C-alpha cells in the first residue's frame, strides 16, 4: 500500500460510483479519511452499515470542510444546486472534480460557483453497471477502464497530475480532452446505445401481436442484452439526455439516416450492402476485445445458458 495521495476525500453522493470510489480508496489506501454525504437518511445509513467511509453527513458542507479532494457523485441535473451549496466551504487549494456522464453541462452549472484558489477539474470514469445505490459499488469497478478528465484552460498542472495519479491508483487509464469532444464521443459510445436500448425495450413492451411472456421467454435471442442497458437508473439517464442535448440529437439524426439506408437495403433485397455492413461491424467487436474492454466469452462472460 502506498502513501495516501489525499488527507481527506469528500464524496458527495454515495450510489454505484461514489461507493465504488470509497471502496477503491479504502482498498488502496489513497486517503487518510473518507467523508461521505448524501441527501437521504436511508442511503446515508446504508453507506455507514457498509462501512464505506470515516464520517457521514446529510449536510454536504460538513463533508467538504477541510477536504483536499471533493468528488461530486450525484446525477448531473443536481450539480448546480450542490455546487452552490458547498462552494463557500471548499478549502483553498482543494481539487473539486466529479464523475458525471456529461461534461459541458458541468462547466456550465458548477464553474460559476467555484471560488478562487480551488482547482476545478471535471472528470468521467468510463465504467459502470446498470445497478444503483451504495450496495451496487465494488472496489475494482475502475480497473482497466478509462477515466476522461476535462481540465479547463489555465488548470494548475500539479492539480491535474495529482488527480491523474488518483485515477491511475484506482486502476484506470487517464485521457485528457475538452468538454465538447467528450460530449460528442460519449454521445455515440454511451448515450445513443442507451437510447436505442430504452427504445427497443419500450417497443417490445408496446407490441400487441407478441405477448410479454414470449418476449421474456425468447429473450436470449438478443433482446436481453438490450434489457441490461434499459434497466439503468432513470434519473441519471434523464439528466444525461437533458444535459447533452445537442450531441445526442446529432448522433440520433445520423443513426436515423443509417437506419433508413438499412431499411432500404432490406426492402430492395440488397444482400451485398447488408453483408458488407455486418462484416464491418464484426471488426469493431474484435477491436474492443483486443483493447481489453470486453471479454470474448460467449454471452459477454455470463454463464452459458443463463
Ligand atoms: P446512483 O447509484 O443512483 O446514486 C446517486 C447518488 O446521488 C445517491 O447518493 C443519491 O442520493 C444522490 N442523488 C440523487 N439525486 C440527487 C439530487 N437531486 N440531489 C442530490 N443528490 C442526489 O448513481 P450513480 O450511478 O452512482 O451515478 C452518479 C453519477 O455518476 C452521475 O452523475 C452519473 O452520470 C455518473 N456515472 C454513472 C455511471 C453508471 O454507469 N451508473 C458511469 C459513469 C458515471 P440518495 O440516495 O441519498 O437520494
TrEMBL record:
Keywords tagged on the record: Amino-acid biosynthesis, Aromatic amino acid biosynthesis, NAD, Oxidoreductase, Tyrosine biosynthesis
Pfam families: PDH_C (PF20463), PDH_N (PF02153)
Keyword Transport belongs to the record: no
InterPro entries: 6-PGluconate_DH-like_C_sf, NAD(P)-bd_dom_sf, PDH_C, PDH_N, Preph/Arog_dehydrog, Prephen_DH
Similarity comment: family membership: Belongs to the prephenate/arogenate dehydrogenase family.
A single GO BP: tyrosine biosynthetic process
Residues annotated as domain Prephenate/arogenate dehydrogenase: 7-296
GO molecular function: NAD+ binding; prephenate dehydrogenase (NAD+) activity; prephenate dehydrogenase (NADP+) activity
Protein name: prephenate dehydrogenase
Catalytic activities: prephenate + NAD(+) = 3-(4-hydroxyphenyl)pyruvate + CO2 + NADH
Amino-acid biosynthesis found in the keyword field: yes
Transmembrane segments annotated in the record for this chain: none
NCBIfam families associated with the record: PRK07502.1
Listed EC numbers: 1.3.1.12
Lineage of producing organism: Bacteria, Pseudomonadati, Pseudomonadota, Alphaproteobacteria, Hyphomicrobiales
PROSITE patterns per UniProt: PDH_ADH
Pathway: Amino-acid biosynthesis; L-tyrosine biosynthesis; (4-hydroxyphenyl)pyruvate from prephenate (NAD(+) route): step 1/1
